[in-house]
Amino acid sequence: MHLGKFHAEIDKIDKFIQNSNLADLLSNFTNSLSAVASNPSHPETAKAFKSHYEALRILLINSPFNKLNPSEKSILDEIKGNEYLGSGLLEAIDNEIEGNNLAPSTALTGIQTLYENATKYFQRISSINRSFTDIGIEYTDLEPEETEIGIIIPRSTIEPNLKAFSKELKDYGVALNVFEEIIGADTNSTTLKLVSSSDWQLYLGAVPVLLLVFSTTIKQLAAILKSVVDLKQSWKELTKKEVPQKITDDLKNHIDSQIDEKIRALAEEVVSEHFKKDEARANELKNHMNQSLKFFASKMDIGVQIEFRIEPPVEEKDGEKNKEILANTEIANSVNENSLEIAEFSKNNSEPLKLLPPDFNETK
Q1: Is there a smaller number of Cβ atoms within 10 Å at the N or the C end of the chain?
Q2: What is the pLDDT of residue 364?
């Protein structure tokens, strides 16, 4: 992972713990359960426990760490933050309470262990954040209105030599060029901001409109891939049953044709919507977009994750938002929502379609 991004994530976690009073809510919940275990028939004790339990549940259900981009989730997983900052902690608490519903004292033992572990974790996070800040460890995060496209490439998908890696980067550049052209941006205006090397992680900067068009298109592409994966699963289930082979063969042929047809339709739709200039060039761009989407589909199919971030603009001092700030905020919100939807596909894609990438040497 990139150290600057790690520092930024640690800082976000530390601020969430402090600002949400998570440690206090967890302490209040644990103490109220202890009171119930000591006096299970007392109504006021039971009422206080339910109140503290609900307050903690609301916080953990709405934790910002429940929905993250792949690179952020990767950091959280590596430092076990998923166990203490959101739905993971809530699930562990619910399991203790529901599994020992008739024995509060037994549930208390498990909850006290969770509380002790979580408290130690919160203290370590705070200590790491202070230490990183004190010794000047780099801090890499987005400024207001700054953009970022993240491409996380599993190392196993690229041969470990410079020639293969340089070709991979070149192909991503070619695939992105068509998006630059259809929105009217300069070709090659997308810049390389950062490279990290656990998995290969590329972070690119581009104009906000490109992120909006690109993320919306990738979200639609992910939906196409999901629909085909679902169809393929249906075909597999049919082949296990006594269904005439002609029916299963027809379904397989239909599945095979769906990817090409739907990707081609998406390519034409995207170019038609955003490129309003020369018709002849538009037709060329539709072919280029079709190749680009096939490229991204083949990469997503083997585990490449694509994420997008725009840091929303800061409100003006008087609290009023002018039209430009409103428009930029809307773009940022749409892009960030698209990214989370794409991440869901990446998380659930366990059935590779074995798609072949196009040859960009044939793209004009």
Answers
A1: C
A2: 46
